[in-house]
Amino acid sequence: MDKKVILAGILKELEQQRMELQENLDTTKQAAVDAPGAMQSKSDTTKFQMNTLANAMRRSLTDKDQVIHALKDFSASQIKDHDTVQIGAIVEVKEDNGQQLTYFSLTQGGGTEIHHAGKLITVVTPNAPISAFLLGKKKGDTVEFPIPSKPGSVRKMTVTHVW
């Protein structure tokens, strides 16, 4: 797998998300401006609610910018092929139900998904629970971890490939 191409695709997806977030922020800010104020309607809190929403969107936009910047600075040495799962590795796993999953372990951008070469690739970060179980594993290793939504149940998967 060409990690540079995949990373470029992840950046493109994040930049698209950023653009959509900016458009939503602009719309929300305009709605706040257009909403009636306390002098017009004492019981209408729309202006306050729209401003609160806009502030949250600004924070999300700042966070998205930081993620994009961090991934643009991700060095070539960090995306070389690896024998074990670590930051910069792409890992393919097969669940015990036969489903194949592909993860790209990065420092930022967790949850971002792109399609590449017929596979859905999901970014996982060290904060993701699955990362704790996969980090350090190599091809052929099997991991089991609890499913939080199903107490007593475990999810089992085998590492089928590491790039």
List the helices and strands and how they pair.
Layout: H1 3-34, H2 46-72, E1 90-95, E2 100-105, E3 113-116, E4 119-124, H3 129-134, E5 142-146, E6 154-162
Parallel strand pairs: 2-4
Antiparallel strand pairs: 1-2, 1-6, 3-4, 5-6
Helix pairs in contact: 1-2
Characterize the structure shown.
- The chain is of the alpha+beta class and 163 residues long.
- Strand 3 (113-116) and strand 4 (119-124) form a beta hairpin.
- The chain has a 6-stranded mixed sheet with strand order 3-4-2-1-6-5.
- The chain is built from 3 helices and 6 strands.
- The protein has helices at residues 3-34, 46-72, 129-134, and strands at 90-95, 100-105, 113-116, 119-124, 142-146, 154-162.
